[in-house]
Specification:
Radius of gyration: 18 Å
Number of domains: 1
Oligomer: single chain
Length: 186
């Protein structure tokens, strides 16, 4: 992000988001699934076969053989789904991603060459939220009084990051990022 590659930063956010969804899924489906996730790291299998055997609250097997299914199971806020879809467009060689880069702004239909600071605020905010989310998954794994305080502190950290990047965006580009740009917690 420091060098001004908003689309690259958004691709990294996409990876963080995927890790958050997987961590949430693993946390809610127990040690067996966690072990399967770890063991799959020693194979060439890039599918979600590690999620096989996960059960819902009624004891029924879940169909969790893809990232899309895992997203559905962990019940992510729909606002994140559209952001994830945008990140996929930007990351892959789609026409939407080629001409709809974060660095272009909302009105320009061109291909950006080189770095641009435009769009960094969105990638930074989303990354901060996901870092908070996955850290919250970890610190609340074995709940104690400090867990709540740590989660509250992390939420405050997101506000600091958001304010810093949104202020920098407004000062640099003369545009105020509204609430529709800000986070949706899962």
């Amino acid at each position: 992000m420091r060098l001004g590659f908003a689309d690259g930063a958004y691709a990294r956010w996409r990876t963080l988001y995927e890790l958050c969804c997987c961590a949430d899924f693993i946390r809610h489906h127990g040690e067996k699934i966690a072990k399967q996730y770890y063991e799959q790291s020693n194979t060439d299998d890039q599918n979600y076969s590690w999620a096989k055997g996960a059960l819902d609250e009624k004891g029924n097997k879940l169909d969790a053989g893809s990232f899309k299914k895992i997203q559905e199971i962990v019940n992510i806020d729909s606002g994140w789904l559209s952001q994830y879809k945008l990140a996929c467009f930007i990351t892959h060689a789609s026409s939407q991603g080629t001409f709809g880069r974060l660095a272009n702004g909302s009105t320009e239909n061109l291909i950006t060459v080189g770095h641009s600071n435009y769009g960094i605020a969105t990638a930074a905010e989303h990354s901060a939220i996901c870092l908070c989310w996955i850290t919250g998954e970890f610190v609340t794994l074995f709940h104690h009084l400090d867990s709540d305080a740590r989660c509250k502190l992390l939420s405050e950290w997101i506000k600091v990051v958001r304010d810093a990047y949104f202020t920098a965006h407004e000062e640099t580009f003369g545009e105020k990022l509204g609430e529709n740009e800000s986070s949706k917690t899962s």
